[in-house]
Automatic annotation (TrEMBL):
Keywords: Membrane, Metal-binding, Transferase, Transmembrane, Transmembrane helix, Ubl conjugation pathway, Zinc, Zinc-finger. It catalyses: S-ubiquitinyl-[E2 ubiquitin-conjugating enzyme]-L-cysteine + [acceptor protein]-L-lysine = [E2 ubiquitin-conjugating enzyme]-L-cysteine + N(6)-ubiquitinyl-[acceptor protein]-L-lysine. GO terms for molecular function: ubiquitin protein ligase activity; zinc ion binding. One of its GO terms (biological process) is protein ubiquitination. This is RING-type E3 ubiquitin transferase.
Length: 160
């Protein structure tokens, strides 16, 4: 039986972001024609070495918290598939990673009702983490209900 659990990455643990993390972090995305100061755009995206078109509304960019700017698809690929850091100045964005729902075929440690995997006693919980935990609990309850319904339907079909 598959197991789902909430994984909260450490703020210092290396890894990647996902698109939701980028959105929540407020790393702005814009088109060349909508950028307030087009003269401050670099000439070239250092990831693909192509020119940044400062006037084209179809060209999209992302500005990181360190103020470096890249083509949107280039930097999203970097942050989501390689490393959550700026490829120019190496500023790290690991702390921006939110909790993730993980999947495992093996069984997980059994916890007593009312306990939460991943949070240590005495560790401050933020509202965000608490709401994520509640969302995951509701999601897991729904999944268990769906699995029970599917099992019941299989039994009915096998008896026929």
């Amino acid at each position: 039986m598959p197991h789902y659990y909430l994984y909260v990455p450490s703020p210092s643990e290396q890894g990647t972001l996902n698109l939701r993390d980028l959105y929540v972090a407020g790393m702005s995305a814009f088109s060349g024609s909508s950028f307030s100061d087009p003269d401050s755009l670099p000439e070239v995206c250092i990831l693909c070495f192509e020119r940044l078109d400062k006037t084209s509304p179809s060209s999209s960019y992302r500005q990181l918290r360190c103020s470096h700017i890249f083509h949107l698809p280039c930097i999203d690929d970097w942050l989501c598939n390689r490393d959550a850091s700026c490829p120019l100045c190496r500023e790290r964005f690991y702390h921006l990673r939110g909790p993730r729902i993980m999947y495992s075929q093996s069984s997980l440690p059994i916890t007593r009702p009312g306990t939460t995997v991943g949070l240590r006693r005495g560790q401050p919980e933020t509202h965000y983490v608490r709401s994520m935990i509640e969302s995951v609990k509701k999601w897991a309850k729904k999944k268990r209900r769906e699995e029970r319904t599917a099992d019941t339907e299989e039994e009915v079909h096998s008896e026929s």
